[in-house]
């Protein structure tokens, strides 16, 4: 089980760190979207990643790609909604 910032103050982020992390998440999402809309379809990307990683399961690669696409919706929207509610 992972710790929260309340349980471990070392996990707390400064506003500048939180902003930098949010920007990094947005960049990751954009890169994954750009990759998905580029010349390579998702199935081809999964096959290439499966080959280059030495056989990581395709379902696991798909799960990671899904997770990368959902980072902002999962983490940024929640925190931005809480911030707007104040």
Structure description:
This protein has helices at 15-36, 42-52, 58-85. It contains 3 helices and no strands. 0% of the residues are buried. The two termini are 29 Å apart. The chain has one domain (15-85).
Number of helices: 3
Overall geometry comes to elongated
What fraction of residues sit in β-strands?
under 5%
Q: Residue-averaged pLDDT, rounded?
A: 82
Task: Detail the poorly predicted runs.
Answer: 79-83
Number of strands: 0
Amino-to-carboxy terminus distance = 29 Å
Task: List the domain count as a whole number.
Answer: 1
- Major β-sheet annotation: none
Fraction of residues in helix:
over 70%
Order of helices and strands: HHH
Structural class: mainly alpha
**Rounded Rg:** 16 Å
List keywords for this structure.
86 residues; mainly alpha; 0% strand
Summarize the structure.
This protein has about 90 residues and is mainly α. It is built from 3 helices and no strands. It is elongated, with a radius of gyration of 16 Å.
């Amino acid at each position: 089980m992972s710790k929260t910032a309340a349980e471990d103050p070392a996990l707390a982020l400064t506003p500048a760190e939180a902003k930098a992390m949010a920007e990094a998440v947005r960049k990751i999402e954009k890169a994954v979207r750009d990759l998905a809309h580029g010349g390579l379809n998702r199935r081809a990307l999964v096959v290439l990643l499966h080959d280059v990683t030495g056989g990581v399961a395709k379902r696991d690669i798909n799960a990671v790609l899904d997770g990368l696409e959902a980072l902002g919706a999962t983490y940024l929207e929640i925190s931005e909604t809480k911030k707007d509610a104040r």
